């Protein structure tokens, strides 16, 4: 049978055919804690469920078991193991009955971790009324929750002069003497908690300053329906006015658009139309003096099936055609499997337009093509 990327209820096929009710999903495991990966199938009994890790059959043991409902149970998740790999990797399950074999999606299993900060906040001297920006970065799995401290006391970010952005960014606008102090960030996830180095914020007297963009938008790639935040923080005296436009001249629109802090652009529930280059401009009030910075937003859409292969009954000597159509951004790459093995073109199997297989059915053909 052919791999199906769909639910049993949408399958117009015979009840005896295999289909997945539940496939394993990506998870982040915690060290020395149990882990379960689900795999539920329906079809004509008897059905045998087996698991593979990184493409190779997974040996079972008292530590690693396949439960009666098909779930894989790892008693105590290991980071390192004597003489073998750790438990991280890509897992899939295979279900077999007398009609053939069906292989699930591959589930990525990662270990929760919180390595050291790779960016620490840097000390700054800022004119009174100006803008301060600190950033700290850490590659946590799962993503760390970042909060800030001033003089080792949790920062009160309900003050609207303080803006927290993703990527560990803290912006302070209209700084005053009371903002001076020693800043550091605190990162927390299921694996650990870490503190960054400390950075000083000094406040100096006010002087005339031309507008400067302290930090402009980064190139950003996100998935449809997520929220995009494009940073733009400008400083100067008098305080510059920040505005946004698209490089292609199209309107940014108003729906789902918000300004965070003094100039960061937030787009909620992004769609493919939001892809483009965004320009942030900082103007000195009442003049044409301006600075700009730009960043590209790329919106991607996950693959989605528009057409699935259908079951067919054909006499030997004829041919069978299976069609599969998927859409997504970027264009999805299709892989065909027969009984869990990648199908390659052969003397009796042809692939046309990358999505249609024509298979000659002959009683003497060997089973590999
Ligand atoms: C499978 O069985 C185990 C043990 O009985 C149970 O904890 C788990 O929730 C079951 N999984 C599903 C998907 O039913
Ligand atoms: C991050 O930490 C703050 C402060 O402890 C808490 O209020 C917030 O809910 C946390 N966010 C997440 C996503 O865990
Ligand atoms: C945080 O700041 C807000 C606004 O300035 C203030 O009303 C509130 O009392 C402060 N909270 C704490 C715990 O200091
Ligand atoms: C953003 O992408 C453009 C090309 O689209 C590239 O020229 C530019 O260097 C990138 N900027 C950053 C900060 O990576």
Write a compact overview of the structure shown.
The protein has 369 residues and is mainly beta. 0% of the residues lie in helices and 46% in strands. Strands 2, 5, 6, 9, 10 and 11 form a six-stranded mixed β-sheet that branches.
Question: Can you give a write-up of this model?
Answer:
The chain has 4 domains: 104 residues, Immunoglobulins (Immunoglobulin-like, Sandwich); 81 residues, Immunoglobulin-like; 92 residues, Sandwich (Immunoglobulin-like), CATH 2.60.40.10; 53 residues, Immunoglobulins (Immunoglobulin-like, Sandwich). The protein is built from no helices and 35 strands. The strands form 10 sheets. Strands 2, 5, 6, 9, 10 and 11 form a 6-stranded mixed sheet that branches. Strands 12, 14, 15, 18, 19 and 20 form a 6-stranded mixed sheet that branches. It is elongated, with a radius of gyration of 28 Å. The two termini are 13 Å apart. The chain binds 2-acetamido-2-deoxy-beta-D-glucopyranose (NAG) (4 copies). The site of one 2-acetamido-2-deoxy-beta-D-glucopyranose has 6 residues, from loops.
Q: Report helical residue fraction.
A: under 10%
Q: Number of DSSP helices?
A: 0
Supply the helix-strand structural class. mainly beta
Bound molecules: 2-acetamido-2-deoxy-beta-D-glucopyranose
| Number of beta-strand segments | 35
Number of domains: 4
| Beta-strand percent range | over 45%
The major beta sheet can be summarized as:
6 strands, mixed
CATH superfamily of the largest domain: Immunoglobulins
Evaluate the radius of gyration. Answer: 28 Å
Low-confidence stretches: 1-13, 363-369
CATH architecture descriptor of the largest domain: Sandwich
What is the residue-mean pLDDT, rounded to a whole number? 89
C-alpha geometry: elongated
Q: Just give the CATH class of the largest domain.
A: Mainly Beta
Distance between the termini: 13 Å
CATH topology of the largest domain: Immunoglobulin-like
């Amino acid at each position: 049978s052919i791999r199906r990327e769909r639910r049993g209820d949408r399958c117009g096929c015979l009840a005896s055919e295999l289909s997945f009710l539940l496939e394993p999903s990506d998870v982040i495991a915690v060290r020395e804690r149990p882990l379960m990966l689900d795999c539920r199938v329906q079809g004509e009994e008897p059905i045998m469920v087996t698991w593979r890790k990184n493409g190779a059959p997974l040996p079972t043991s008292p530590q690693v078991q396949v439960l009666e409902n098909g779930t894989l149970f790892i008693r105590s998740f290991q980071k390192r193991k004597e003489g073998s790999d750790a438990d991280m990797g890509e897992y899939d399950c295979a279900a077999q009955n007398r009609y053939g074999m069906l292989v699930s999606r591959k589930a990525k299993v990662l270990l929760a971790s919180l390595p050291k900060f790779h960016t620490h906040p840097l000390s700054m001297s800022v004119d009174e009324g100006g803008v301060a920006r600190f950033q700290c970065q850490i590659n946590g799995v799962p993503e760390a929750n970042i909060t800030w401290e001033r003089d080792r006391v949790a920062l009160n970010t309900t003050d609207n002069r303080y803006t927290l952005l993703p990527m560990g960014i803290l912006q302070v606008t209209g700084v005053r003497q009371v903002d001076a102090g020693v800043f550091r960030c605190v990162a927390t996830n299921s694996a650990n908690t870490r503190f960054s180095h400390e950075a000083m914020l000094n406040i100096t007297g006010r002087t005339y300053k031309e507008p400067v963009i302290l930090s402009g938008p980064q190139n950003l790639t996100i998935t449809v329906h997520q929220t995009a935040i494009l940073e733009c923080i400008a400083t100067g005296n008098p305080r510059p006015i920040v505005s946004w436009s698209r490089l292609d001249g199209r309107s940014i629109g108003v729906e789902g658009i918000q300004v965070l802090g003094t100039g960061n652009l937030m787009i909620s529930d992004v769609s493919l139309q939001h892809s483009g280059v965004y320009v942030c401009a900082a103007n000195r009030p009442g003049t044409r003096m301006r600075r700009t910075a730009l960043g590209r937003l790329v919106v991607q859409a996950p693959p989605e099936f528009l057409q699935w292969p259908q079951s067919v009954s054909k006499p030997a000597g004829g041919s069978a055609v299976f069609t599969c159509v998927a859409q997504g951004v970027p264009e999805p790459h299709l892989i065909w499997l027969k009984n869990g093995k990648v199908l390659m073109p052969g003397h009796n199997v042809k692939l046309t337009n990358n999505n249609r297989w024509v298979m000659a059915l002959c009683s003497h053909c060997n089973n590999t093509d």
